[in-house]
Amino acid sequence: MRSLGALLKLRRGRRGPQGRRTLHLTDWLAYGYLAIGIVVMFGPVLWLVASSFKTPAGLLEFPPTALPYAQTTVDVEGYDEPLPLFDVTFEDGTERRMAQVRRIGIEASMVDPDAPGDPITVNIEQREQVRELRLAWENYVDPLQRFNFLTYLRNSVVVTVVATIVTLLANSMAAFGLSKYKFRGRNAVFLLIIGTLMIPLSVILVPVYLVITEVGWVNNLWGVIIPGAATPTGVFLLRQYMLTIPDQLLDAGRIDGASEWRLYWQIVLPLSAPAMAVLAIFSVMWRWNDFLWPLIVLTRSELFTLQVGLNAFQGELNVQWHYVLAMTVLTLLPITMVFAFLQRFITTGIASSGVKQ
Amino acid sequence: MTVLGWLIEPIQRLIGVRRMPWIFLLPNLAIFGVFILFPMVMNFYYAFTGGTALYPLERPFVGTENFERIYACGNYLDPATCNEDLFWRAVWNSFTFVAFHVAGLVFFALITALVLNARIVARGFFRSVYFYPVLLSPVVVGLIWKWILQRDGVLNGILVSLGFDRTLFLLNADWSMFWVIVVTIWANMGFHTLILLAGLQSIPKELYDAGAIDGTGPLQSFWHITLPLLMPNVVVVLVLAMIRAVQMFDLVYVLTGGGPGSATLLMVQYIYEVGFASQIQRFGLAASASVTLGVVLLIITLVQLRLTRGSESHLA
Amino acid sequence: MTQSTRRLLAALAAVLTLVAGAAFAQTELRMTWYDDGSESEVMSELVERFEAENPDIDVVIDVVPYSSGILESLPLQLASGQGPDVARVTDLGGLQEYFLDLRPYLDDPGYWDANFGPFHDWMRPDGSDAIPGFMTQLTVTGPYVNATLFEQAGVEMPGEGATWEDWAAATNEVADATGVFAMAMDRTGHRLAGPAISMGAQYFDENGDPVVTDDGFRRMAELMVDWHADGTMIPDVWIGSQGSYVAGNEQFVNGQVALYMSGSWQIGQFTELIGDAFDWKAVPNPCGPSGACTGMPGGAALVGIADTDHPEEVARLMDFLAQEEQLAEFYGRTLFIPGHLGLAEGGVDFDADLPATQDALSQFAAEVPKLADAAYALQGYQYNRVVFDATRDRLTQVFVGELTLDQAIERMQRDIDEQIADAQ
User: Fold this and answer.
1) What is the per-residue pLDDT for A124?
2) What is the pLDDT of residues B134-178, one digit of tens each?
3) How many angstroms separate the CA atoms of B270 and B90, rounded?
4) Which of A269-283, A299-313, B215-229, C1-15 has the lowest mean pLDDT?
5) Tell me, what DSSP letter sits at residue C71?
6) Which chains have 3+ CB pairs within 8 A of C?
7) What is the pLDDT of residue C68?
8) Across the interface, do B1 and C2 touch by the CB < 8 Å criterion?
9) Which residues of B touch C243 (CB under 8 A)?
10) Are strands C57-63 and C27-33 parallel, antiparallel or unpaired?
11) Is B167:B242 a contact under the CB 8 Å cutoff?
């Protein structure tokens, strides 16, 4: 029994007089908390997904509906375009379903869709839209037709994968150097790296961009991949983990004549796997979600990452919400899928390895 | 043979084992030096220059003028009397934000970790539930919540259907800061929960059994066993949360843009606006503000190193 | 080497080749573009036609988000010489040093002078005769009203020559009767400037330096403060965020406001989103005590970038796009007010069936001759964004109680003076 397990007596479901296992009050509290947790943590994302299937008009509705509805239209004989359907309540209380021909001011002229005779005039207060459930797939399809989604996806994948490999390699080598050797300047280097743990990129955007232009990496995926690869967080995390690996293992290896590189590659790296996994997850997350930096470095659409390419629906004067929401869902999808498959590994990885100091 | 081994092993023969740590540090330090350290030095130089030229050498040296501009103030507690009033509003907003964000984050992460550590059904599933928002990009989180909190958003929809009045959550200074804090906690809590959970799971269960024999109550065992043993992890969470809170930008930028007025303008956003987002990009002024920010962060780091020194020896 | 090593290296090599890009036999031109609607579709059709006629040139359109891409990143890219060959920009004054003068490369510069002349002053230094580009759209600011709400409330709409106060009174009646808000205005100093100039604001002193301390500006600022205090203006738009533009179009489309001060570019969106769900129409800009009844001109321009390696090809592309035939199609399909004098006079055949759309287009066209000189001067001013941003942000601080109006106006002036001093 651990911690609150003791506090809440949750681990030991009590047995009632009849020997049936009953839930203690604290169990109810815990499950209540978890239930609220699901709503609060998942609800907003589900709401985003639901909204992304609404038509522009549906998005503007209040109160918002949970499911995407769109106005029902009907083909009426004698009219070229499909007409919108309404339920009309007449003065005498009767209700009829009618198609609207046009609306002028506060009056609408409507016809019976089955027997379109002369239109009758109805006050707009008397009618109510007939709506049907419809997923607005066009929010997804239109933008994808306009832009080269596959190119963006490929760039995002390349950036994420290569950057993660580079990050893992550079950071673990540095962490190995800092944790397994005693040498002059070690503390200085470590402090320097930790010192910059704090500076967010948004603060030094301009100087970093100048360096990139000098290196010639504007419009080059390396310009996106490399600058973020020497993460202080990664070095810090891996170093702390490697400190727990006994030095005797390395000494034994040295006696067997293994090179330093071999010690790193064949002993320390495999033993650091949990911490490496954590860093890998973080790196994938950071790189996949990165928006501002790729936008500055990449101006050519064949190099755009998903985050850059799919944000093109934010105009000067209009934001096309229906597209923005749909494209946001699209960028969420891959990372959510990866997480769904690896969630056990990811969460236990962080919990069990990592970030202990 | 191993990757890169063919390259590095001859080097070892050449320079000897004693210098090898530098070889291991080289890739990281090279990238770090060129793309982080050098720009930071350049940024520091910017802080003492004026004008709008991009290249440092084209910029006139103005000494401490930028700092004087930022620090000229009648009363630091009343930003309206300061020369750069928005900077000081951002400073005080950041203080409020960091205090409540960190307190709330640690509180909820702790509760969640305790609940997840109890014997519950589908623990793995619930752990992922709380972790999922950590995966989302700040831009997406800001967008989602903005969508929920707006006048015609779903939260108002629920409130109205329950008979309450509509509230303009992001248009009222207090509500807006409240939601900024809530949403940032929502987005980051899962990560910290896992760190605390790791700590809880490493507490030996015998301690509680011994306590139970002595007749220790649940609350007492929490105060006397759980909390002291969890302390190193709590410190890590505190420090990490604090650093992230001081750096907070994208999420709030998308959610409130710093508004209404300047009610949720935080320090990094101020720097971004002055140096990057305005028509006249004042790199010098922005840099001097970021040097100030750097000093604040350095102080937090030093405190961190002091605090973690104890816990490191404890765990290692 | 192990199997996995080899695979890793192969992957790295593949990435490297991928990054290096392929060599083009043709001249490649890059056009940085942003979309308010789906203009890029129309533009890419025009560009395809150009490519068919000019097989040696390949044009690629890169669509980026407006504020982070065009407003924030592009200036940095231009300043470091990493810009595209052609770009669609709105900061015509601030970026003018980076624009290419097409004149030496054009066969018939006279055509450009005749049709785009007045707008070229917005995108080149005073006294220059450069031809940097053409307007992809000319915009005019002005109010829209929800006529159906007026009808439901039984309120007479103020006619020609009505003042802003008249409109505020009328829309407030509508609001009381129908339970909506009276007015909304896009959150930008640009939308505010038209009404302010009608109130007598000049925006410049006799030396030509920008000022916001005159009585005219103050009168408009006071009205805005009052309107926000008494609930005439829907708070959602202006009480928004520091440093950002917010449009009120959703509130208008929703039928939440009786009057919406925006501009001609909304027509396409309203056609699509409102259609005939209610009667919407553009009305003349209200007047002020100065006698002016003005909105603000504005717009986006497609310009060549001076850094390009292929100025001749850029000029060929620009000259093709700027011809009447292409522009007539572009304006017609995007429902933009033409920034081409010949087309403005001759009329563009807009691709719209809805009577409301046609009415609104002609209403905004009728606003153009009524624009005040001060409005043109402000639009043509190199640092007008500094003025717009300062007025917007400081005024909002008054609405939320962070500053008094006196403090705010003093701050606006100081923001403007300091930033312009920094820029020079």
Assistant:
1) 77
2) 888 888 898 889 889 988 888 998 998 898 888 888 888 899 999
3) 7
4) C1-15
5) I
6) A, B
7) 82
8) yes
9) 257-258, 269, 273, 277-278
10) parallel
11) no
Confidence of residue A20 (pLDDT cuts 50, 70, 90): very low
- Look at the block and give the residue holding tokens 């203690």: A24
Contact: B31, A289; criterion CB under 8 Å: no
CB contact under 8 A, B119 and A5: yes
pLDDT band at C72 (very low <50, low <70, confident <90, very high): confident
CB contact under 8 A, B156 and A63: yes
DSSP assignment of chain B equals --TTHHHHHHHHHHH-GGGHHHHHHHHHHHHHIIIIIHHHHHHHHHTTB-SS-SSGGGSPB-TTHHHHHHH-BS-TT-GGGBTTHHHHHHHHHHHHHHHHHHHHHHHHHHHHHHHHHSS-TTHHHHHHHHHHHHHS-HHHHHHHHHHHHSTTSHHHHHHHHTTPPP--GGGSHHHHHHHHHHHHHHHHHHHHHHHHHHHHHTS-THHHHHHHHTT--HHHHIIIIIHHHHHHHHHHHHHHHHHHHHH--HHHHHHTTT-SBTTT--HHHHHHIIIIISSS--HHHHHHHHHHHHHHHHHHHHHHHHHHHHHHHHH-
Residue B309: per-residue pLDDT: 63
Among B1, B260, B281, beta carbon nearest to C1 = B1
Query: At a CB cut-off of 8 Å and minimum separation 6, what does C137 contact?
Result: C265, C299, C300, C331, C334, C336, C337, C339
Question: What is the structure's pLDDT at A103?
Answer: 73
Question: Mean pLDDT across chain A, nearest whole number?
Answer: 81
Share of chain A above pLDDT 90, in %: 20
Query: What would the DSSP string read from start to end of A22-52?
Result: E--HHHHHHHHHHHHHHHHHHHHHHHHHHHT
Is pTM beyond 0.90 here? no
End-to-end CA distance of chain C: 60
Q: Which tokens hold the place of A13?
A: 């479901």
Q: For residues A350 and B198, what is the distance between their CA atoms, to the nearest angstrom? A: 8
Nearest alpha-carbon partner for A327 in A67, A145, A63, A133: A145
Element (H, E) at A106: none
**Mind listing the pLDDT tens digit for each residue in B30-39?**
999 999 899 9
The Cα–Cα gap between C406 and B202 comes to 61
CB contact under 8 Å between C397 and B261, yes or no, is yes
CA distance A182 to chain C (A): 31
A-chain CB neighbours of B138 within 8 Å are 289
Q: How many CB atoms lie within 10 A of CB C52?
A: 8
SS (H, E, C) B177-209: HHHHHHHHHHHHHHHHHHHHHHHHHCCCCHHHH
pLDDT for C396 equals 93
